[in-house]
Specification:
By secondary structure, the protein is of the alpha+beta class. The chain is built from 6 helices and 4 strands, in the order H-H-H-H-H-E-E-E-E-H. A 4-stranded antiparallel β-sheet has the order 1-2-3-4, with helices on both faces. Helix 3 packs antiparallel against helix 4.
Length: 155
């Protein structure tokens, strides 16, 4: 997951490659993508909270929330290197975001691909959540500068 971020922080070609990829992804959406759409009130609160943390560059809180055990006890893991990689690559967070794609298998399942962007750079976040006992829990996620990597995860 974080390998793409490590590769993206290499000084050569990062901005050009990412800007082209983000631009192509935005064109593919047509008028569906709206700036600020990652804060839509119709989303589960946990999706909005996680998007806010990425926007603000609060990666420590993002990973802490991602790693909270689910109702069945499973836990998503992260390392301090994950936090430091994001903090180094995107120290000030992002200027805006929008939900690019979402999918649901039923009313208790949700997948979403969100784009975060700044001045010539961006990041994509994939989230998958299930609602159990009226509480949405994140069961899977991916952060990457590669649109195609996270796009492949949407069913």
């Amino acid at each position: 997951m974080i390998i793409a971020l490590i590769n993206a922080t290499a000084p050569t070609g990062f901005n050009a490659k990412l800007s082209t990829g983000l631009f192509a992804a935005m064109l593919a959406l047509g008028s569906q993508g709206q700036a600020g759409g990652c804060q839509d009130n119709e989303k589960p609160q946990v999706f909005r909270d996680l998007a806010t943390e990425i926007l603000n560059g609060d990666y420590e809180t993002f990973f802490h929330e991602i790693s909270t055990p689910t109702i069945v006890g499973s836990r998503l893991e992260y390392t301090e290197k994950d936090v430091s990689t994001l903090s180094s690559a995107f120290p000030n967070g992002f200027s805006d975001c929008f939900a690019m794609l979402d999918a649901s298998l039923n009313e208790n399942h949700r997948q979403e691909l969100t784009a975060f962007f700044g001045d010539g750079y961006g990041l994509f976040l994939y989230l998958e959540a299930f609602q159990l006992n009226n509480t949405w829990e994140i069961w899977d996620y991916r952060l990457s500068t590669s649109f195609s990597e996270v796009r492949a995860l949407i069913d």
